[in-house]
Design goal:
Strand content: 15-25%
Oligomer: single chain
Shape: globular
CATH superfamily of the largest domain: Transferase(Phosphotransferase) domain 1
CATH topology of the largest domain: Transferase(Phosphotransferase), domain 1
Radius of gyration: 21 Å
CATH architecture of the largest domain: Orthogonal Bundle
Number of helices: 11
Number of domains: 2
Order of helices and strands: EHHEHEEEHEEHHEEEEEEHEHHHH
Distance between the termini: 31 Å
Largest sheet: 6 strands, mixed
């Protein structure tokens, strides 16, 4: 699924390496009469990241060997790598290393956003950023080093026929964890964070299939004070972005809710949000499922056939109704993430 970007590249923020050299003295939270910005919050925690040299990451990936490539997106390529602990003591650590494509859409601004957002968050359902590498000059390099997620993404397990079918209950548990990650971003920080790119490929899975949200390059601070939205250039992924955001550029937390509803229908049906290989009337998932309402006798026809009826129909109806509430045309009519979390817990109980 390709991303769309309708914006001019803005002037890059100063390089993080230069920020490292600044004095770490900080004002207390109480000294601020209003919520601090992402940059202000990040300054308190930037020392927690490991700064890698380019050579360390070249060595970690055997020269960015194609055999070690595990993903590719708007940012660039992602490699599996092995690094030594910072103190040189202990076993090597397997990591994921994201290497910026300097000619791609997501440039230094998005790289910096990801470092800063992941620098201030701490939640079991958000991927952990271990460090970064930033090189300027003739050959500009921007890299990020994350914890390694061995079970790839929710997208891979839903749509790849080379992987075992993801059981019904595991699907719900993954969505519950993802919802708790979004709830934390929307409601659990000093400032609100709008993720802006929720989709099945950004839900990564650890060895126990616990989900973690990844790729924060498009994340934005939410509205503050009397603001109802943030005005921004429209970026995201076709099929997942909320219609009012695409039409107006007005971004709010309820934009993430729409995207969550789309993925709920993906786990129900086993179909991608846009599937060009299907008959025309079935290509757009959200339009197609409208023909099979949750309370209708035809509803079960949309359930992923790979589940082989190994699911709770009652729970499936609850998930469809929850998805429908997330996909309300009026953004204000959509539920909050805390309400979604509770609904998913209830659906799991009857699964």
């Amino acid at each position: 699924m390709k991303c769309f970007f309708f914006k001019q590249k803005s002037k890059s923020d100063p390089d993080l390496n230069r920020k490292k050299k600044k004095n770490h003295a900080k004002k207390s939270i109480s000294a601020h009469s209003s919520p601090r910005s992402i940059k202000e919050l990040y300054k308190e925690k930037e020392h927690n990241f490991r700064v890698f040299t380019l050579q360390e990451l070249v060595d970690a990936t055997n020269g960015f060997n194609k055999v070690l490539k595990i993903g590719e997106g708007g940012f660039g390529k992602v490699y599996r790598g092995t690094i030594t602990p910072e103190n040189g003591i202990g076993n090597p650590i397997v990591v994921a290393i994201k290497k910026l494509n300097t000619r791609g859409f997501q440039g230094h601004k998005e790289w910096l956003a990801e470092v800063q957002f992941l620098g201030i968050v701490n939640h079991p359902n958000l991927v952990k950023l271990l460090g970064y590498c930033s090189v300027d000059g003739e050959s500009i390099q921007r890299l990020l080093v994350y914890e390694f997620m061995p079970n790839r993404s929710l997208e891979d397990h839903l749509f790849s026929r080379s992987l075992p079918t993801l059981p019904w209950k595991i699907r719900l548990q993954i969505m519950l964890g993802a919802a708790q990650g979004l709830q934390y971003l929307h409601e659990g920080l000093e400032i609100q964070v709008i993720y802006r790119d929720f989709k099945s490929s950004n839900v990564l899975l650890d060895k126990k299939f616990h989900p973690k949200l990844s790729d924060f390059g498009l994340a934005r601070e939410g509205p503050t004070g009397d603001q109802t939205h943030v005005s921004t250039a429209v970026v995201g992924t076709r099929g997942y972005a909320a219609p009012e955001y695409i039409e107006t550029g007005h971004l709010k937390s309820k934009s993430d809710i729409w995207s969550f509803g789309v993925v709920l229908y993906e786990i129900l049906t086993g179909r991608r949000t846009i599937e060009r290989t299907l008959p025309k009337v079935e290509q757009k998932l959200i339009e197609w499922v409208k023909n099979y309402p949750a309370d209708s006798s035809r509803f079960s026809l949309i359930i992923d056939p790979r589940l082989r009826k190994q699911y709770s129909l009652d729970a499936a109806r609850k998930i469809a109704k929850l998805a429908d509430s997330c996909l309300k045309k009026n953004a204000e009519d959509r539920p909050s993430m805390s309400q979604i979390v509770e609904s998913l817990k209830q659906a799991l109980q009857c699964s």
